[in-house]
Design a protein that fits this description.
Strand order of the largest sheet: 2-3-1-4-5-6
Number of strands: 6
Shape: globular
Oligomer: single chain
Distance between the termini: 27 Å
Radius of gyration: 15 Å
Structural class: alpha/beta
Low-confidence stretches: none
Strand content: 15-25%
Helix content: 40-55%
């Protein structure tokens, strides 16, 4: 049985690393993995979307609309923008924080996290909202949002925490290994 995971956020949040860690963890278990990123203006805070597909019955790295089992959203508005990828009975794991796009800042418009999460709750079978700001304060680093959200995904049975930690050891500099493992265990 395949698993389709869409990871979305904005540039600089660690979405690409999260996709690589998730993919490496699945590969280490002998799973077949296809993945792809759509990055756009990511370096300037633009949208970043990673598709991770795990299983034998997949033939393209891109998840078709309406086929994602889980959306892991590093930013609530990005979850709302990508909700059409989610299956009818799919789940959203979302950062409670909204990152205001530059265009909204220029016009004076703002996005409200509670409104975004309420919208997601109406659109998904299950929503897990994670306060990554609090997690980052508790862990002492703003650079672990990605691993906090992957740790939350472990609670769904998507992947085992120990497999994630093994993948982190392969992909993250040794100086940051322990911090990232603490982030996975946070939720």
């Amino acid at each position: 049985m395949s698993k389709n995971i869409l990871i979305c956020g904005v540039g600089g949040q660690g979405t690409v690393l999260a996709a690589k860690v998730l993919s490496a963890a699945a590969i280490s278990k002998g799973e077949r993995v296809l993945s792809a990123e759509t990055i756009g203006m990511a370096q300037r805070g633009g949208s970043v979307t990673s598709h991770v597909r795990i299983g034998e019955d997949i033939f393209s790295p891109l998840i078709p609309q309406g086929q994602a089992d889980i959306i892991i959203a590093f930013e609530a508005a990005e979850a709302a923008r990508n909700i059409t990828y989610l299956k009818k009975d799919g789940m959203v794991i979302v950062n409670k924080k909204v990152v205001q796009p530059t265009t909204a800042s220029l016009t004076g418009k703002t996005f409200d996290a509670n409104e975004m999460i309420s919208y997601l709750e109406k659109s998904a079978a299950k929503v897990i909202a994670v306060d990554t700001d609090q997690a980052c304060r508790d862990l002492g680093s703003s650079k672990v949002v990605n691993m906090v959200l992957l740790g939350a995904a472990c609670k769904t049975g998507l992947i085992e925490k120990n497999d994630l930690k093994d993948a982190i050891k392969q992909l993250v500099k040794p100086d940051f290994y322990e911090l990232n493992c603490k982030a996975v265990d946070y939720v």
